[in-house]
Every structure is written in structure tokens, then in C-alpha cells.
């Protein structure tokens, strides 16, 4: 890719596949005729037929550049064939141009045209900057006119039981592992896998391989090292070694605090964990956080405050990352307000079907003057168990968490609470990316990873998902894992 007068100038060759959902005209540059010679004048290439199980690519060979030697013409693509095409394109790192999107970076920047190449965002054009000459020579280009739909960064979920969780109601209650399409349907392009209560039949070795599999299938995936129990299990013999030697390990978690399923660790034990996480993060260039599972115990956040006080502030409050803070009753919510106002960060577990605790909490905190919402994230607890206990500890109810909970939470904040989209979407994009020290995630900008969601501008329903530059979801199909039906 060469530069000419500060612009990307590329030469058309190889395959050009035009992907358009509806008949439309692609806007061409206001530039001169030579610039526009590379542009198709009107494209009706891909439309939804009456039967949505098939998409038809019409013969538009007259719209392609004269030196193009390969093209798709008069071929019907089934959903399965389109999926296979996507898998192939992920192997060859094709390029995609998204036209006419209302882009949130997550801040709103208006209508833009986004060019993805390889795994990254390589250009953001406004109308004045865009000409087809910019794309001269780009092989394998796919053009998608989103026609005023919203484009936001792909979602980051810091707490997903990708190998399954649960088990609190006996062996039959172990929840199933994550399917690729289930994660994608939740708009998740980056996940952090985790172990919970069970670290006997669930292992870090299994988690590490599952995370690697998700990466092979097109997502970005990391993991926490440890589980509820202290001392936590590790892959290499120590947390510090895990962080330095295992690329995917971002910190310690989820360590149970104030929970009847935890180990009720002493301050010295927790101090050792947070110290190893912090130093391991320094040596590996990672965030090095301790992701703390908060239970319903009366000690609430006190064990974390104790560590800060013992170290006399040497260990910063930002090294701790408590989760489930809205799900354990009003006392923990009140304690979390102080925690966040003092500079701490916290994660709320998104509401499942029929719940409203996290939604109500965010609405309440959003109304507080100068409350730092940029210190909060949301996570789905996807594929983890949803046990409900009475005051005596008896299990009353059992369910499984959906990885689509974050998307539904953001939709509710915008459509029901009337929040601006940029205010709501931060909890799944820029905020967790900042907490985890992932500078290429959670944002739409040149050089960032090509993780994008295309949402209906009115309903915020998910239309397209791009992960690491490749389309993994359209309105008619979602990429599936190897053994998904």
C-alpha cells in the first residue's frame, strides 16, 4: 500500500466482491473524472430475495474495472456458502469497505467510510476525503453500504465462562461451554475466559486451549489465571510466571471475596496474589489486575480496602477489579459508590431475562452529579451458573447466563433510559479496553483492530459483526464453530 499526497493510493486487481443488502447507489467522489474512473456508477449486486435463505449476486461485470480478471457473476450463494466464503476470506485477509456508517469511536464522529484490511482499521474517510482512487489496486475488496446504520467498536466481555461453569447443584448442573456463534450473536469480539467455583473438573489447561480455539476461529480471547479458591491454581507454578509466559493470561481471577463458596483468604494470602499480579503485569506489559468475585457476605469490599491500607497505598486501588457489584444487594452497591469515587474500578454483571438490577443501578449512578462512569464496565458472566440462595444458604433456583446480556443492557440504556449511545456503549468498549491495557481494542480509529458492530440506527439490533477485520455475522447468518450445528 503506497501513499500519494498523504492519501492511500491502491491499485485494483484480483477479485472484487460487492456485498450490498439492498439496491443502492454508492456515492462517488466530488473529484475529477479520472478519480471516479475506478468507481462503479451504480451497484445492485447483492440483495435479499423473497427467500432470505438465499442471496443472489447479479451479473454486473460492466461495473468492474477492465483489468479485473476474476469476478462473481450470476451465482446464488446460500447462507452456508456465504459462511464458507467468510471462512476463506479470514484465511487470506481480504479487505472490506463499509460505506455511510454513523460512527461512534465510541464518541460520535458522524458519517464515515471505514476501510478494513488484514486485521485492522486502515482508513477512516469522510465524504470530502473519499475517492475510488484511494482504493486502486486493493485485492479482494468487499464493499458494504450500511446506509446510515450505526457502527460501534466490537464489545469486550471481561467475564465469560467459555469452558462452562456451575456445578453448585451437583455434577448434572455443570453448564456447557461457549459456542462461537453464541458469543458473536452477543456482539462479543473480545472475551476473557474464567474459572469459577469448580476448579477440579474445570481446569486452567482446558481454559487455555479453549481460548486458543476461539482465537483460531476469529475472535480475540484472553483468560484469567486462578479461580474462586486461594491459593489459586496456575498453569506454570506461579501467577507471575503465567503472566510472563502465557500470552493470553491478563491477571488473577476470579478470586472469591466475601462469598460462602470462597476460601475466606487471609490478608497475607491476598496480598501475595495482588503483588504477583502487579509485578507480573509490569514484566509482561499487561494490566496485571486481580479480578475479584464479590459475594453477599457482610465484609463486602473490606478485604480489598485492607490490602490497600496494609500497603499504605503502594498497591493502587486500580489494581483491583471487583465484579458482580450490583448483584449482591444495596449494601454492596453503596460500598461500590465509595470505591469508585475514590478512584477504583468496578464491573457490573448485566441483567439476564426478567432482571433489572444492573440497569437500575447504572441509571441511578448516571444521575449522580459527576459520578465517574468511565470507571465502570459490564460483563455477561456468560455460560456461568445463576444460582439463587436463601438466607440459610439453600439453593432455590438455577440457570445459565446468556452472552447476549451486554448488548441487551446497552439497548435498554439507550431506548428506555434515553442515554446517548456513546454514554452507554463505553461499558463494553473503551472502559474495559482501558482497564485491561488493550490499546487496539474498544475504539474505532486508524490502527485499531478491525472489531466492529453494525447496529440498526433505530432499534440497535445487531446487523453485522466484524472481528479482526473479517465479517463473522450478517443479518442472515452467523459464523459457527467447527462442531456447532
Automatic annotation (TrEMBL):
Instruction: List the signal peptide residues.
Output: 1-31
- Pfam families in the record, alphabetically? Amidohydro_1
Cofactor(s) listed: Zn(2+)
Q: Which GO terms describe its molecular function?
A: dihydropyrimidinase activity
Q: Which InterPro entries match?
A: Amidohydro-rel (IPR006680), Metal-dep_hydrolase_composite (IPR011059), Metal_Hydrolase (IPR032466), Metallo-dep_Hydrolases_sf (IPR050378), Pept_M38_dipep (IPR010229)
The catalytic activity, as recorded, is: 5,6-dihydrouracil + H2O = 3-(carbamoylamino)propanoate + H(+)
Arranged from A to Z, the UniProt key words for this protein are:
Signal
EC number(s): the record gives 3.5.2.2
Record's family? Belongs to the metallo-dependent hydrolases superfamily. Hydantoinase/dihydropyrimidinase family.
NCBIfam families hit by this protein: isoAsp_dipep (TIGR01975)
The entry's protein name is dihydropyrimidinase
Amino acid at each position: 500500500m503506497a501513499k500519494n499526497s498523504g492519501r492511500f493510493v491502491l491499485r485494483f486487481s484480483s477479485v472484487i466482491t460487492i456485498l450490498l443488502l439492498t439496491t443502492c447507489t454508492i456515492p462517488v467522489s466530488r473529484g475529477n473524472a479520472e478519480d471516479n474512473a475506478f468507481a462503479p456508477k451504480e451497484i445492485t449486486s447483492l440483495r435479499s430475495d423473497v427467500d432470505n435463505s438465499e442471496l443472489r449476486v447479479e451479473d454486473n461485470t460492466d461495473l468492474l474495472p477492465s483489468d479485473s480478471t476474476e469476478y462473481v457473476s450470476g451465482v446464488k450463494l446460500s447462507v452456508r456458502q456465504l459462511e464458507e466464503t467468510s471462512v476463506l476470506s479470514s484465511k487470506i485477509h481480504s479487505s472490506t469497505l463499509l460505506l455511510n456508517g454513523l460512527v461512534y469511536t465510541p464518541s460520535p464522529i458522524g458519517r464515515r467510510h471505514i476501510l478494513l484490511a488484514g486485521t485492522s482499521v486502515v482508513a477512516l474517510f469522510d465524504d470530502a476525503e473519499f475517492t475510488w482512487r484511494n482504493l486502486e489496486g486493493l485485492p479482494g475488496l468487499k464493499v458494504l453500504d450500511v446506509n446510515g446504520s450505526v457502527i460501534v467498536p466490537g464489545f469486550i466481555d471481561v467475564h465469560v465462562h467459555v469452558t462452562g461453569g456451575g456445578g453448585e447443584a451437583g455434577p448434572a448442573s455443570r453448564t456447557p461451554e461457549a459456542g462461537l456463534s453464541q458469543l458473536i450473536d452477543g456482539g462479543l469480539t473480545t472475551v476473557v475466559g474464567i474459572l469459577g467455583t469448580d476448579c477440579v473438573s474445570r481446569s486452567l489447561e482446558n481454559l487455555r486451549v479453549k481460548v486458543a480455539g476461539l482465537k483460531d476461529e476469529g475472535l480475540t480471547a484472553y483468560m484469567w489465571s486462578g479461580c474462586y479458591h486461594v491459593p489459586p491454581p496456575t498453569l506454570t507454578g506461579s501467577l507471575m510466571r503465567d503472566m510472563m509466559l502465557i500470552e493470553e493470561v491478563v491477571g488473577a481471577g476470579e478470586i472469591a471475596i466475601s462469598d460462602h463458596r470462597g476460601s475466606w483468604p487471609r490478608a497475607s494470602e491476598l496480598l501475595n496474589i495482588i503483588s504477583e499480579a502487579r509485578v507480573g503485569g509490569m514484566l509482561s506489559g499487561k494490566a496485571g489486575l486481580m479480578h475479584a468475585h464479590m459475594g453477599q457476605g457482610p465484609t463486602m469490599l473490606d478485604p480489598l480496602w485492607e490490602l490497600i491500607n496494609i500497603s499504605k497505598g503502594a498497591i493502587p486501588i486500580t489494581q483491583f477489579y471487583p465484579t458482580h457489584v450490583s448483584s449482591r444487594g444495596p449494601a454492596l452497591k453503596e460500598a461500590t459508590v465509595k470505591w469508585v469515587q475514590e478512584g477504583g474500578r468496578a464491573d457490573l454483571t448485566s441483567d439476564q431475562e426478567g432482571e433489572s438490577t444492573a440497569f437500575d443501578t447504572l441509571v441511578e449512578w448516571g444521575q449522580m452529579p459527576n459520578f465517574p462512569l468511565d470507571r465502570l464496565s459490564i460483563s455477561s458472566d456468560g455460560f456461568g451458573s445463576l444460582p439463587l440462595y436463601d438466607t440459610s444458604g439453600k439453593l432455590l433456583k438455577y440457570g445459565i447466563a446468556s452472552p447476549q446480556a451486554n448488548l441487551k443492557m446497552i439497548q435498554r440504556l439507550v431506548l428506555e433510559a434515553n442515554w446517548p449511545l456513546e454514554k452507554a456503549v463505553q461499558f463494553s468498549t473503551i472502559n474495559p479496553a482501558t482497564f485491561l491495557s488493550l490499546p487496539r481494542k474498544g475504539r474505532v480509529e486508524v490502527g485499531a483492530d478491525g472489531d466492529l458492530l453494525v447496529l440498526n440506527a433505530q432499534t440497535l439490533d445487531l446487523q453485522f459483526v466484524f472481528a479482526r477485520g473479517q465479517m463473522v455475522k450478517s443479518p442472515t447468518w452467523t459464523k459457527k464453530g467447527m462442531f456447532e450445528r
